Amino acid sequence: MKMATTSWVGFMLLATLSIMGHVAEGLGVNWGTQAAQNLNPGVVAQLLRDNKINKVKLFDSDAWTVNFFKGMDIEVMLGIPNNQLSSLARDYDKAKDWVKDHVAKHLYNGGVNIKYVAVGNEPFLKAYNGSNLETTFPALQNIQKALDESGLGDRIKATIPQNGDVYDSGSSGPSAGQFRADIRDLMTQIVRFLQDHNSPFLVNIYPFLSLYQNPDFPIEFAFFDGGATPVEDDGITYTNMLDANLDTLVWALKKAGAPKVRITIGEIGWPTDGHAQANAKMAKRFYQGFLKKMAEKKGSPLYKDELEYYLFSLTDENQKSIAPGDFERHWGIYRYDGQPKYPIDFTGKGNDRMPVPAKNVPYMEQKWCVLNGDIKNLDKMPANMNFACSNGDCTALGAGCSCNGLDKQHRISYAFNNYFQINNQDVRACNFEGLAKISSRNASTGQCFFPIALQDSGAWKLGMHVWAGVLSGVLALFVLLF
């Protein structure tokens, strides 16, 4: 009987693995750490392995984090933040030191499988007012040169993650595509450099943003299930925004004299909160269509090669700037704690199943900060609500969002609890001039989730590096709560 039981367990394990299958070719995921509490990198590495995702894109090169990917069959893209571009552009020795300290040190037998270095992140966004125009390309050149001179240039390539707004076609179709007029000469130099060094053009494409920024954008064009009215251009029929966007880039590259540059999608995804059209249902629909398309190895009408792509993002980041919109903190396929939000099939076969959750996630005590119902005088409530939301995260309370349906008391509790958890359940963070109390009763209700802080796993401080900068830009957003 013991042998039979063992055989049965083995059979079920093999059957489960067979059902999971292999992820769609080229699939990777972004993992950002602009959160009050981040999963331990070891937990993240195991989460990727459990879901058979073998590519990860990071936004920095923190050695402690990168080291957790050693000995794993996971390709890593390191990131260089925009605030480091100037020094790397000015001083080649600093670029050499960067490659030595952040790349070469990990490349021993059984080390980290580093594939790319992302120089900057969307450095030419119009919102930056040209602040990175003089430093980005020289920094790229210096990093690639340092890689080459270290004997690493054949296996590790430097590139620049670009926002999709670096090219456009005006009011015409993709065939009118070209790089933005104000950066056209610079982009021409960059893409020819990428072509010469066999480095990919990394572009971030967000159909959701087209929908968010333009109320007249046809919503069906953001998806892949055939509901959109076709658009004709130069003899080609387009039924989704991704194909049209990619072919606009193909035309821009061709006109810039770099038609052979490989295209990689650096970020693509759909948020689940912070906007009426950001929810789990729409995210599931988007990914289901996108991953099916990728599994069929269909690039676009003009870009026939198989695409490499990185989903955005692995987990929510509750300290990201909300200047672009409240949805910015809710791009995660997983919540902050590694629990999946909706079914997603990374194989692209469309199976309706939840991805594997994170394992061994250490939570703090099961307690929440809520409104003290015994308090009758609420004169101090508006100021305390504004404080909690300005220093926490109330983006789920907006119109059409997951917690918008809460009554006044529960909205107050949500704001108080979020601030309390962000501050590591410090009892001093659940006072609010006597208006709050700590409760052992789960305050979550309906689709509105009241989080619990994670224990300090070592990743806490990593997230806190960005906390001060984000807080300085956050305003009191929820006067409308009352």
UniProtKB/TrEMBL annotation:
Q: Which residues form the signal peptide?
A: 1-26
Give me any GO biological process, just one. Answer: defense response
**Keywords in alphabetical order:** Cell membrane, Disulfide bond, Glycoprotein, Glycosidase, GPI-anchor, Hydrolase, Lipoprotein, Membrane, Plant defense, Signal, Transmembrane, Transmembrane helix
**Record's family?**
Belongs to the glycosyl hydrolase 17 family.
This protein's GO cellular component annotations are: plasma membrane; side of membrane
Any idea what this protein is called? glucan endo-1,3-beta-D-glucosidase
Q: How does it sit in the bilayer?
A: Lipid-anchor; GPI-anchor
What Pfam families does the record point to?
Answer: Glyco_hydro_17 (PF00332), X8 (PF07983)
Quickly give the catalysed reaction: Hydrolysis of (1->3)-beta-D-glucosidic linkages in (1->3)-beta-D-glucans
